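Late entry, written up from scratch paper. The run itself happened at the end of the previous shift, but nothing got recorded in the book at the time, so transcribing now.
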Amino acid sequence: MPHWPAHDRLEAVKRSLHAAGQHRFFADKRRRRHLAVLAALAAVTAFVFVALQPRDVRVLADGEEVVIETHQSNDTAVLSAAGVVLEPGDRVTEVEDDRGDLLRVERAIDVRLTVDGEIYALRTHAETIDQVLEEANVVLEQRDSVVQNGALASANASIEPPTLLASSEAIQVSPTLTPATAIDIEVRRAVRFVITDEGREIESISSRPTIAEALREAALVVGPGDVVLPDPLAALEVDTNINILRAHAVTIALPEGHRVVYTLAPTVREVLDAEGIVLPEGAFVDPSFDTAITDDMRVRVIQLGSSADIEIEYIESSTVYEVDNSLEPGETLTVEGQDGIRTRRYAITYVDGVEVGRELIEDILDPEPIDTVIYYTERTEEPPPRPSADVLVAGTPLRVYAVAYNAASAGRSPDDPNYGITATGVRVTWGVIAVDPTVIPLGTKMYIPGYGYGVAADTGGGVKGYMIDLGYPDGVPIDWTSQWLEIYIVE
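Output as recorded:
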């Protein structure tokens, strides 16, 4: 055994210990690596085992729920396995409840939006029209209107699918939309226009498509014989000038009866010529041929007898209303009257063929005029509950008992300065409706089936509660049957 110095022996021991330590370090490292590999293999084995296990997934789409057993973890793959095809804009929501996994498919809806001459195809989850407009960055201006599937709608109305009544023309415009499901929304921009009514200029704004609808929206009633220029069916355009020429109501009393005409003719002669009325020999008119026409004018055709001393005047009967509470609610009874004939006999003095004196020697009414009486009952059906202010809105149906009246039936004499004048100062005519203002406020616009559009502009002592009185011009036969019906508030 060699003899090493103490220093050398110490260094040899150190080297031996170091080598032994390194051996143990690398041995431990190899053992840790083997354990890590074994742990990873165990995790992969567990994951593969779990992943290979099928799971039940419920898929709710298009109103139907199906359950499929799948190994897929990707939502798209699961939906594909369930036969569900996603369209652009559709949303998929994953829900986990006590029944397991649920994939809910929320379909976007197709909307064809027409605005400012442009057509846009949208797929959206909006629930109301204004939400669609907000998505499309469309701002509604004053008096703009919205049409959904061909019908006027409120901007905050719900999105509704089209019906068979929807415009097929509108659906055909955009081939990117499905006709069975596409919702058609159109924004109609309001335009300014001017109305000249009997020299009075009115500036207005409307989004209605025609002149007639714009006038109706402006509460301007076009009566019989009135002329509107341009044609009422013409399109309403920017700065359209609308001129309304108001016709005069003229009652012409003839030997065979009387008639009411609505005319723009300036004189009595021109009215008779326009109506093709030829006076028999010896007849004359009152007032004279050259008299200017005024509203509610009466023209009498007076026929003299063969002896030139007989004057015959035909007197038209009136229509009056009387209460008969033996009638059932809504029932009326009409007792027809008759026109009368007044015969006046004169003693006439002539000088050189010119009349210089006339003396009435006989004045006979045969037959006497008899008024037509329409009996009605004040008994009414149980009225519906009075609507609150927030219920009486456009489109709201309101059940009322509707009767009719004119100036002659309002109780005033034609000589009275207030004859035919309503509580609001307008004259009784078409479209003037008398109401109980505690139920229907004055100024309310409404539509009455069988009569047309009107505005609450009059009151009456007999008009109480759910009762309205429909205005007719003087001389126009009242063909309205008193009845219960539903009217519609316009605005």
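The radius of gyration is 45 Å.
(Scratch paper discarded after transcription.)
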